[in-house]
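User: I've been trying to design a sequence by hand for this structure and keep getting stuck. Would you show me what you'd pick, starting by listing the structure so we're on the same page?

Assistant: Good idea, let's start from the same input. This is the structure you sent:
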């Protein structure tokens, strides 16, 4: 069993990590299942947004399965880290919005998985941490790179070098979470929000994601070129033309009449 459950809610695909007995820890098998589903979702035009969450109430994801790290050789550890990085990078680059519904704890690789999503909705009880330092190790699935970009270098250094927990309100104030939601309403509200994202034109969503990611990676000047290309691509679509014409028609209908 891969430990991943996939459900459909209209145009939204729900990916649920389903290893509650292991706090939804990410085994190699589960990472492979995430990548397999990512490929399937990329090619499915009926899916226009994705939500990632964990089964149960205790954990979104407790990180890498420590059983697989016990006695691992340096060479195998490098290969496993690169594999996880590639899975998360490809999820981040998915041409559809991805929202994490963070229930319970998001530790280590679980925090890194949440950060690979475009947005993070956190339950009131959610907690985030990069606790690898306590195991004499370092975040290996993107934590040293994505966390400073989200919360700033100083706060990232505190989380990574001290390894302590960050609660949901703090995560919200730092920019690690986008919204904090009552525990019992987390999944419902996240699915509703993802459904709203799914209503937007796919070409525009993909273009916006690519431009933001490219600019962060390569700098503003390069990002502006990708942004301009994204606008050009949108302007070649029937959806953009229809939206502009509908807007203009609506504005004309609302214009005040002038009596003579």
């Amino acid at each position: 069993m891969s430990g991943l459950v996939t459900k459909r809610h209209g145009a939204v695909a729900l990916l649920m990590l389903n290893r509650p007995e292991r706090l939804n820890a990410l085994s190699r098998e589960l990472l492979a299942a995430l990548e397999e589903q990512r490929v399937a979702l990329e090619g499915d035009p009926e899916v226009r947004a994705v939500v990632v969450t964990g089964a149960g109430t205790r954990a979104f994801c407790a990180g890498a399965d420590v059983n697989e790290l016990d006695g691992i050789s340096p060479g195998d550890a490098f290969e496993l880290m690169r594999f996880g990085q590639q899975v998360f990078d490809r999820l981040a680059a998915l041409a559809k919005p991805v929202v994490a519904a963070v229930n319970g704890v998001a530790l280590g690789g679980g925090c890194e998985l949440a950060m690979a999503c475009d947005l993070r909705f956190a339950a009131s009880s959610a907690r985030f941490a990069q606790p690898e330092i306590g195991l004499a190790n370092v975040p290996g699935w993107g934590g040293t790179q994505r966390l400073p970009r989200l919360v700033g270098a100083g706060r990232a250094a505190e989380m990574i070098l001290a390894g302590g927990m960050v609660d949901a309100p703090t995560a919200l104030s730092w920019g690690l979470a986008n919204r904090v939601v009552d525990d019992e309403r987390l999944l419902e509200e996240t699915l509703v929000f993802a459904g709203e994202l799914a209503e937007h034109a796919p070409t525009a969503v993909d273009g916006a994601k690519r431009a933001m990611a490219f600019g962060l990676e390569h700098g503003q000047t390069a990002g502006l070129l990708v942004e301009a290309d994204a606008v050009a691509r949108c302007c070649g679509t029937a959806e953009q033309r229809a939206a502009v014409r509908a807007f203009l028609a609506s504005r004309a209908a609302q214009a005040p009449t002038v009596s003579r």
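That's my pick for every position. To get oriented when you compare it with your attempt: The first strand starts at residue 4 and ends at 9. The chain has a mean pLDDT of 96.
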